[in-house]
Amino acid sequence: MTESLPGAHMREELHSQPAMWARAADLTAEQKRLPASGARIAVVGCGTSWFMAQSYAALRETSGQGETDAFAASEAFIDRGYDAVVALTRSGTTTEVLELVERIKGRIPTVGVIGDPESPLVSLVDEAVLLPFADEKSVVQTRFATTALALFRASLGENLDAAIADAEAVLVEPGDEELRDADQYTFLGRGWTIGLAHEAALKLRESSQSWTEAYPSMDYRHGPIAIAAPGRVTWQFGEAPEGLSAQVEATGARFEQRAIDPLADLVRLHRTALDRAVARGLDPDQPRNLTRSVILDA
């Protein structure tokens, strides 16, 4: 494979994800730098990082390890008595994240989970958890986001062996042209997988200029199901509400769900996004109107 092929970086990074997760699961020292169980925390990020923050927050709180909120960095309500703030960012240069950390420096302990060890955020936070091995060349994030979430899950006491095995399996299965060529996609999740649903919609939109939407599974029937139709896909991450699959199939849409770890199902979506982009003559390594990091002018 040469770097001149469209999506070459995304393809390599996509297939490296199971190995990245295994490495993150072994980073016990780095996991201990995250806020301890019982601490009341906020997790912030932008775009993909915000959606991973949502998943981490739901997992941490529902496992009884402390109140955990997730915010887009530009819209964070930080002055609520938090014991710590976790800032997740691949580049460590995103303007909104840097401004937030600077604003609370010295008042609220901060932990940065960062891909680039040379970024300015490293020196701003009180604790830096560095994941340079998971950093990426593609503008479209895949492995850094899922590796960070794998680190978070491991820090909460989860065993990732099944997730890793599921991801390895989906990466070698045959492609699905019907799924790749659908007219429209809606992604659904419950609890911690709501963040995955939002991330899936963003990833497919960024990579292939596709029409995507995302909702909590239970809310889908409160209006959004009106978009379901033949040639369209409703993709559920994790367990679906009772009766939902039948309701979607009655519209003629395809209801997509796998009994695998939801993070591995996100890898399956990454592969679909890559295949769809390439089939449309697009390069997901250089998506339209996007850059690796959003740096705003003062």
From TrEMBL:
Keyword list, A-Z: Isomerase, Repeat
A Gene Ontology molecular function term of the record: isomerase activity
Matching Gene3D superfamilies: Glucose-6-phosphate isomerase like protein, domain 1
SUPFAM superfamilies in UniProt: SIS domain
InterPro entries: GlmS/AgaS_SIS, GlmS/FrlB_SIS, SIS_dom, SIS_dom_sf
SIS domain: residues covered: 28-170
Protein name: Sugar isomerase
Lineage: Bacteria, Bacillati, Actinomycetota, Actinomycetes, Micrococcales
